[in-house]
Specification:
Length: 291
């Protein structure tokens, strides 16, 4: 059994990664008779599940010998409080994206998003959340690429998902706007840019950037974008493209070497990213500058 009561032998996909305060999981099974999942009460916090495909049904058992039947379509959600026992019968093939968030993680996410303290999450079972579905499909797609240069993209998507979860499923749904648009100081801006530039061909974590400026992840992304007009990943990608241009024009290095040196992944990813930024493939761009 895994930590959610699933039989591991019946899972066809079991992926996990952590970003910030959220532990992301993806569970898939082609077994139409998966059976029952059950977990005992614990202090782990909360779980939000989102169906990645439709035509899944589950009967959830409640206290006092009651149960409820739910049909899940694509992007339908459920919310679990780990403080309660959970038991459900699963019927039909399924694919779910899961987000586990501790109580302390909820408080930190709410504080970073300038929202009131959130004590718990709640939501209507089998309610459809297309926006959350889109963001989760995006973050798993990036994570599946296993491209280390995309670590900032994962962190930024995770921060956006956290804000959405707090806004939509936080029990205190009274989000407030202070009216203040926080910018980085000159020192903070230079510090974060220097840190990003020093890792142009490596990996930099959003937590490291935020900590260097004494901000939460969400607050740092907002402040950086307000100050520079770009997200941290967008700014870093621009530096990588500039380095690639210099190497293309001033050296005879093969494209694969330039891609690695500039932190732009493999040749396929390099070509797509470079063409999107410049309007030309790397090889064609190099030839145009040499003619």
């Amino acid at each position: 059994m895994d930590g959610f009561g699933c039989q591991l032998a019946k899972l066809d996909d079991d992926m996990r990664f952590v970003s910030g305060n959220i532990s992301f999981h993806r569970k898939r099974s082609a077994d139409p008779y998966f059976g029952q999942v059950a977990t005992e009460a614990s202090d782990r916090g909360f779980l939000i599940g989102l169906s990645l495909k439709g035509r899944h049904r589950r009967r959830i058992f409640h206290s006092s010998n009651r149960s409820s039947l739910h049909d899940f379509e694509e992007s339908s959600i459920y919310v679990r409080n780990f403080a309660d026992d959970y038991k459900a019968d699963l019927d039909g093939q399924f694919g779910f994206a899961l987000m586990e968030i501790s109580g302390a993680g909820l408080e930190e996410m709410a504080g970073g998003a300038d929202l009131p303290a959130i004590s718990e999450l709640c939501g209507e079972t089998a309610h459809r959340d297309a926006m959350l579905g889109g963001m989760l499909n995006a973050i798993f797609s990036v994570a599946d690429s296993k491209n280390s240069s995309n670590s900032l993209v994962v962190d930024q998507l995770a921060a956006a998902i956290g804000v959405h979860v707090i806004h939509v499923y936080g029990k205190a749904r009274c989000a407030h706007d202070t009216g203040m648009r926080r910018r980085l100081s000159t020192l903070e801006e230079n510090r974060s840019k220097e840190l990003l530039a020093s890792r142009v061909n490596g990996v930099v974590a959003l937590d490291e950037l935020a900590e260097a400026c004494g901000l939460s992840r969400v607050a740092f992304i907002r402040a950086f974008r307000e100050t520079t007009g770009l997200t941290p990943h967008g700014w870093l990608t621009r530096q990588r493209i500039e380095l690639a241009c210099s190497l293309l024009q001033g050296s005879k290095l093969p494209l694969s070497t330039i891609a690695a040196t500039a932190g732009l992944g493999d040749l396929s990813h390099f070509t797509r990213t470079f063409a999107k930024a410049t309007g030309a493939a790397p090889g064609a761009w190099r030839r145009s500058k040499q003619s």
